[in-house]
Amino acid sequence: xxxxxxxxxxxxxxxxxxxxxxxxxxxxxxxxxxxxxxxxxxxxxxxxxxxxxxxxxxxxxxxxxxxxxxxxxxxxxxxx
Length: 80
Known about the structure:
Elements: H1 3-10, H2 38-45, H3 51-61, H4 73-78
């Protein structure tokens, strides 16, 4: 099993896949930080920036719950 196939199998079923079990770059976690400045990567790698906390904040900004379902902006704010 290749590394890319391991990545694909870990994604929830709601993510689209092609017949070859490949996922698009924007859904591939291997490319999550590809556009991130090196200074930020260093801070993330050293635990200075808490990426999990930032991801939760972004879900709230989009009105999504932790499962990626739209719950509305007001409800999302309550689930901090």
